[in-house]
Amino acid sequence: MDDLKHLSKESLSELLVIGQQLKIAALSLKKGGLNIVGECLKGQGDFYELSHYPQDDVYDAESKSQYYFHAHRGINGEYGHFHTFMRAPGMHASAKPIKNTSTEPWPSGNDALSHLVCISMNQEGVPIGLFTTNRWVTGEAWYRAEDVVPMIDQFEVDHAFPNLAVNLWISAMFRFYKSEIAELIVSRDEVIGEWQSKYLERDVFEDRDLEIASFKTIDVDQKIIAIQRALDA
Q1: pTM to 2 decimals?
Q2: Residue 54, preceding bond cis, omega within 30 degrees?
Q3: Which of 33, 87, 94, 138 is deepest in the core (most CB within 10 A)?
Q4: Which residues are bridge partners to 212 per DSSP?
């Protein structure tokens, strides 16, 4: 939480409000015997690894933000994770994917979406980590970090499917962890570059040996406490 020391009192106060919004969204579900993950799985039939929940993803037609939940990894304490995206029409005008020199096709035009970050969840529907992935994992077009980082501010889903509280929660996660997500995206590019230099004969974006590019554990409650302490100081 060292980065909090460099924030103004106004910025810290804004972060504290967002953290409280995260808690309220999760609590509103908990009071009804629900949780963030459960609302994405509701009414979707049997749960299968790699399947998207809800089916056909959650998409905001105004912001062009998109996400889905699924499970396929066995990292310690994780039940599954959210994949989040920005579709091309929602990006700032200067954002352009890099040239595809791979043998695998990349989505193009309005379909040239960019993956932003994964939100790792535990069995209780509590966020425990953030991470970025290699291109092949999500089948995205690849944008450089300097184009992806500004998309953090653009991500927002505020309609009622599958649940308004879930959508407000995941949107608030982007505000609350903006600096952490930005660092992970920058680190992602550094890891990709290092991997490409080390394995010149491989197509780095299709290399199954490189799946997770950057990872950070998170704890909403602990960050709220740290923000409050920084404000008190």
Answers
A1: 0.95
A2: yes
A3: 87
A4: 133
What does the alpha-carbon distance between residue 38 and residue 166 come to, in Å, rounded to a whole number? 10
Q: How confident is the model at residue 73 (pLDDT cuts 50, 70, 90)?
A: low
Region of 144 please: left (phi>0), alpha (psi -120 to 50) or beta. Answer: beta
User: What confidence tens digit (pLDDT) does each residue in 163-214 have?
Assistant: 999 999 999 999 999 999 999 999 999 999 999 999 999 999 999 999 999 9
Q: Please, what is the angle between helix 164-176 and helix 178-198, to 10°?
A: 70
C-alpha–C-alpha distance, residues 119 and 196, integer Å: 26
Which residues partner with 80 through β-bridges?
A: 121
